[in-house]
Write the structure tokens for this entry.
Amino acid sequence: MKTTQILIAGFGGQGVLFAGKLLAYKGLIEDKNVSWLPSYGPEMRGGTANCSVIISDTPVGSPIVSAPDCLIAMNLPSLLKYKDSVVSGGVIIIDSTLITEKIDRDDVSVYYVPATKMANDEGFSTLANMILIGKLLDACDEFTIDGTEAALEKVIPPRKAEMLGINLKAIKLGYDFK
Amino acid sequence: MAKKVLMKGNEAIAEAAIMAGCRHYFGYPITPQTEIAAYMAKRMPKIGGTFLQAESEVAAINMVYGVASTGKRVMTSSSSPGVALKSEGLSYMAGSDLPGLIVNVQRGGPGLGGIQPSQSDYFMATKAGGHGDFRMIVLAPSSVQEMADLTIKGFDLAEKYRMTSMILADGTMGQMMEPVELNEPEIKEYDKSWAVTGTKMQRKHNIINSLSLIPDELEKLNFERFQRYKQIEENEVMYEEFMMDDAEICIAAFGIAARISKNAIIAAREQGIKVGLIRPITLWPFPTEAFAKAADKVNSFISVELSMGQMIEDVRLATGCKKPVTLCNRAGGMIPSPEQVLEAIVNAAKGGNK
């Protein structure tokens, strides 16, 4: 019986909620119990935004993630706010283009991924979130990259279907980043 | 069986209302329930329904009164301060015996308060929906699936008893997404010979009205209405028991507080503490009997709330103060953590719950 708690945090507009939704749908397709809870309120407009995702073999109780197994930090305020809450043995994934800070904990696995730069270089500047999700699929034992396309089909609306390919490409890029 | 999809609680309410045959929605935007209105604005015009953003909450509830008078399924939704504005209309609907559904996705108060989740409208929903002697059926969902299911149930009960049903949710329930399965509900038909639908010169006209200036007649209406309420108390109580079989401590919690309590209960059981949960699904009628029975078995109760201690009063009434009832709470938009609830359980297990 396994429960994985994920916290994705960054600025409003970085696709934090979308990234969380992708993970939740991936869990749903795999027949897991899932919950997705966004921060809502004034911070969405330019301030910090975050989203709690829980994927579990058993029914999800509280949907609020206070001690994440995995943290994706897309800006410095989010990293500073949540880095100490990550459980021992957990994973922290950092957009190192936007955050130069290093993690001073040795009980967690940390991945510095220059996602924003990689996204800009590839010409899809808005997909740093997907690059980081790709790294998460690689770094967290609970995830595999299989089934990602099916989950993407669920979260990308039909009128934006042409975005599917580059989203997959971004995820693969993050997954393969060493 | 429909396929499971991920939906926000607010969207699940809106879609379920449409599936329940509701074709008239009147509202006014307020966080954290705006997705209900947004969903209705998108869907209603496509299915021949009415979405109308009223000029105020007061206007919206009076539009609900109007449609309800014709016997059609109708709803409005808001959040705490907005629901308070609707209380006059709710009382008028009660006085006119009109069915309708009202959704309150609660936020912290009092006053304008904040926009983060709260359960501090428990009193308003269960005791003081407006002026005068009346009740509303109050349904408290604890999952996105229940947001949908209880919306359908709410419409049914409202028509069955000719009164308003309220969905009492909170910001987390409205904003979170969970898998939900929406199956076409069976819609029961109730007598609506009271509705104002045009007489076609073939029957005496109906009057929908809450004014009654002759005291003994008004008293009679009140007594009759409370006879109906008594039937509801006897027949419509809903609650969930979780790990109560051998429980020595009983938690009382609804909605989001119940979910958090379940985490704490599982953690406490790992420590060998026998604790369970009674989760009211109907807040009115309150599951009085379930708590009364538990009072004969358990040593103490803990009321877990996102408010300053509101439901705790009903737990004390239901248990006749036989056993101590303590409060474990956060307020103002803060949410108790499973750790806080666990601490309250451990304290109760040590006998500190006096």
Notes: The beta strands of chain A are 3-11, 33-38, 48-56, 70-73, 91-95, 109-113. Residues 134 and 171 of chain A are 4 Å apart (CA to CA).
